[in-house]
């Protein structure tokens, strides 16, 4: 397109697909590919990958601008999205227009009704923390493998709001489902994946891009959720007990035609996926950084002792007084970069950005990784330094221009309050009960897995009980 943002020269049909793949093979991470394009072509880069126009933005002030403008609030129509949602655009994360507005409003309202941001949510998190601590205690003589330690406890808090029940830590079906989501997230990417850019390829090479694996995983998830929704239908009471009940009741009123059976299933699927993978990966990163930085771990433990005394495990109320601990959690999020390219947006109409023309239906990637790792703003960005989030007088200091792990604007994460509460309570209760140590002879691999979210590769941790 004319006056499109700069980028490498385009070939017919494939566009810049080969440039992209070549760089990806070299750099191994999608966000680094976009950082590398940005170095060469500037803060706004325009590519064509197969049939899709993709513009990536790396600078914080432009990202803020874009996330604040309604014409950038669409979502790409991904191929996997369609598999997941019966060939239609359903759910919450990838829908647009009124459907998105209504579903987002309903979800937020309903999650709040069933606990989000309320005292009961904290109680449920504390319950999950206690069970996890017991579980770690029973195994603490031997090293524990950190792979999906947090998956079920984290999902449980959300699942109680959505479906009114929690899962046992050793529930095999849920382990399997979380594992499927985890491996699908490793296979997908925000740039859309090859199948997305050249859809006809899926008929030629079905294994391409893990296509079959992802489709299989989605079908397993759908079957599982169908069972849960059927149960709710059978046991529906006058007073709704959870989000699914509320949805079913609202659907029965027939006042809004975006409330359908298929929509309910897709909404649950979206919330399940968005809510489990993100927070539990961040907690795995937390464990990783703590074994790499024992001195920081000691400082967190000392702060808890100094501020709360030696026999009180922190509550959310204590958060404001545990400033160093808060700074450590912020630094874990900054370095962990769970959603390195955020979630892709799409232009709803032709528009302009800093003098460039951006056609309708262009995919927009916000490079959150770059925002958090930009050496022009962050001093020694690859070093783990919690002090960067503390002012001279020891107060927590967050510059919202350069720290946006949950995104910004109308599409901002709806689970932020829950995620922050989970991160704080799980992190502090673990460090209150244990000191974490690296296992002799098994230095962890600090390079994360790539994917739609980043996650640490599995590593071993020794949990040493603290005498508090
Ligand atoms: C540490 C944990 C989390 C991080 C870092 C995170 C990050 C993000 C980011 C970057 C976005 C995209 C914003 C954009 O489109 O520009 C997002 C969207 C979203 N998140 Fe989270 N998230 C986390 C936890 C959660 C949880 C626990 C839930 C469960 C309720 C959740 C539900 C969602 C949903 C539904 C959206 C899509 C919103 C929309 O499209 O309107 N997230 N999140």
TrEMBL record:
SUPFAM superfamilies: Cytochrome P450 (SSF48264). GO terms for biological process: organic acid metabolic process; xenobiotic metabolic process. The keyword Chaperone does not apply. This is Cytochrome P450. PANTHER family: CYTOCHROME P450 15A1, CYTOCHROME P450 508A4-RELATED. One of its GO terms (cellular component) is cytoplasm. Its cofactor is heme. It comes from Rhynchophorus ferrugineus. Keywords: Heme, Iron, Metal-binding, Monooxygenase, Oxidoreductase, Signal. GO terms for molecular function: heme binding; iron ion binding; oxidoreductase activity, acting on paired donors, with incorporation or reduction of molecular oxygen, reduced flavin or flavoprotein as one donor, and incorporation of one atom of oxygen; steroid hydroxylase activity. The keyword Transmembrane helix does not apply. Belongs to the cytochrome P450 family. Heme binds at residue 413.
């Amino acid at each position: 397109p004319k006056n499109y943002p700069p980028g490498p020269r385009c070939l017919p049909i494939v566009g810049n697909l080969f440039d992209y793949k070549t760089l990806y093979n070299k750099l191994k991470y999608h966000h680094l590919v976009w950082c590398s394009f940005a170095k060469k072509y500037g803060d706004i880069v325009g590519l064509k990958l197969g049939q899709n126009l993709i513009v990536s933005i790396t600078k914080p002030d432009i990202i803020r601008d874009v996330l604040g403008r309604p014409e950038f609030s669409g979502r790409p129509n991904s191929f996997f999205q369609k598999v997941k949602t019966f060939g239609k655009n359903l759910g919450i994360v990838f829908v647009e227009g009124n459907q998105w507005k209504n579903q987002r409003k309903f979800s937020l309202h309903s999650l709040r009704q069933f606990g989000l941001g309320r005292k009961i949510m904290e109680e449920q998190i504390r319950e999950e923390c206690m069970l996890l601590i017991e579980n770690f205690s029973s195994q603490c003589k031997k090293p524990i493998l950190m792979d999906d330690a947090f998956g079920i406890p984290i999902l449980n808090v959300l699942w109680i709001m959505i479906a009114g029940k929690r899962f046992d830590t050793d529930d095999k079906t849920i382990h399997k489902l979380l594992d499927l989501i985890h491996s699908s997230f490793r296979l997908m990417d925000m740039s859309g994946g090859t199948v997305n850019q050249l859809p006809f390829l899926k008929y030629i090479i079905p294994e391409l891009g893990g296509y079959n694996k992802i489709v299989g995983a989605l079908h397993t998830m759908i079957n599982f959720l169908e069972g849960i929704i059927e149960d709710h239908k059978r046991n529906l009471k006058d007073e709704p007990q959870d989000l699914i009940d509320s949805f079913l009741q609202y659907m029965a009123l027939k006042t809004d035609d975006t409330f359908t059976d298929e929509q309910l299933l897709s909404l649950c699927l979206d919330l399940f996926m968005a809510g489990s993978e993100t927070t539990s990966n961040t907690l795995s990163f937390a464990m990783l950084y703590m074994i790499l930085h024992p001195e920081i771990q000691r400082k967190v433990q000392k702060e808890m002792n100094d501020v709360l005394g030696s026999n009180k495990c922190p509550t959310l109320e204590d958060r404001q007084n545990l400033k160093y601990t808060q700074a450590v959690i912020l630094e874990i999020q900054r370095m962990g970069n769970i959603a390195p390219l955020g979630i892709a947006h799409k232009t709803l109409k032709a528009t302009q950005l800093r003098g460039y023309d951006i056609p309708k239906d262009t995919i927009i990637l916000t490079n959150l990784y770059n925002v958090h790792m930009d050496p022009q703003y962050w001093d020694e960005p690859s070093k783990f330094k919690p002090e960067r989030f503390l002012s001279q007088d020891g107060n927590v200091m967050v510059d919202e221009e350069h720290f946006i792990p949950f995104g910004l604007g109308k599409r901002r994460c709806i689970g932020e309050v829950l995620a922050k509460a989970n991160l704080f309570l799980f992190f502090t209760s673990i460090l209150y009960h244990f000191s974490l140590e690296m296992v002799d002879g098994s230095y962890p691999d600090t390079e994360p897995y790539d994917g739609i979210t980043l996650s640490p590769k599995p590593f071993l941790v020794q949990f040493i009980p603290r005498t508090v």
